[in-house]
Amino acid sequence: MKTLEIIGFKRANLDSAALNEIREAGNVPCVVYGPGIPEQIHFYSPAILFRDLIYTPEVHLVELNIEGTIVKAVLKEAQFHPVSEVLLHADFMAYTEDKAIKFEIPVKVTGSSPGIAKGGKLEFKTRKLKVKGTASTFPDFITVDISDLDLGKSFKVNELKPQGFEILTSPNVSIVTVGIPRALRGKKGE
């Protein structure tokens, strides 16, 4: 799995006026907490550094460089402005290589579905799956092969064979379905 570096600068003043100044200067207030960190670290980073972390379908591990202190972390939560959708705040969770963490990994579809060839439409029911394991065992994405999906059929979580990590998403959840368009529904009943 890819790792991105985010450079941060510690902040001592946590009041709302200081937060507004940080945001007006084009930065994002952040916090990191978790194993190996005695108490949470409040910091800020330039907003441009989050482009490859947030605005992409890929997932990344993060190496935070906070004034020379290196912390391995994952993005736990990102808060956005409700109207402008500007990134307002980011929470990171530190991890160690020997302890399992929970993470969301995107789904990648491969293969050609016979149902789509007949006019069906591929419908994503979920684009990410919640997993648990050590960071070194996480793949960049979870592959779903739709080669056997016919019209009206689904690929469920329980059909996956994870290696080195555990899938926490319910086994009965459909990942993708080949939907039957209205035009074909009428033909089936004839």
UniProtKB/TrEMBL annotation:
Classification via InterPro entries: Rbsml_bL25/Gln-tRNA_synth_N, Ribosomal_bL25/Gln-tRNA_synth, Ribosomal_bL25_b-dom, Ribosomal_bL25_C, Ribosomal_bL25_long, Ribosomal_L25_dom, Ribosomal_uL5_bac-type
Stored CDD domains: Ribosomal_L25_TL5_CTC
Molecular function GO labels: 5S rRNA binding; structural constituent of ribosome
Any one GO cellular component localisation term in the record: cytosolic large ribosomal subunit
GO terms (BP aspect): translation
Domain Large ribosomal subunit protein bL25 L25, first and last residues per copy: 10-92
Residue ranges occupied by any Large ribosomal subunit protein bL25 beta domain in the UniProt entry: 101-182
Superkingdom assignment: Bacteria
Keywords: Ribonucleoprotein, Ribosomal protein, RNA-binding, rRNA-binding
Function of the molecule: This is one of the proteins that binds to the 5S RNA in the ribosome where it forms part of the central protuberance.
Family: Belongs to the bacterial ribosomal protein bL25 family. CTC subfamily.
Subunit and interaction comment: Part of the 50S ribosomal subunit; part of the 5S rRNA/L5/L18/L25 subcomplex. Contacts the 5S rRNA. Binds to the 5S rRNA independently of L5 and L18.
NCBIfam families linked to this entry: bL25_bact_ctc, PRK05618.2-2
Name of the protein described by the UniProt record: Large ribosomal subunit protein bL25
Taxonomic source organism: Algoriphagus boritolerans DSM 17298 = JCM 18970
Gene coding for it: rplY
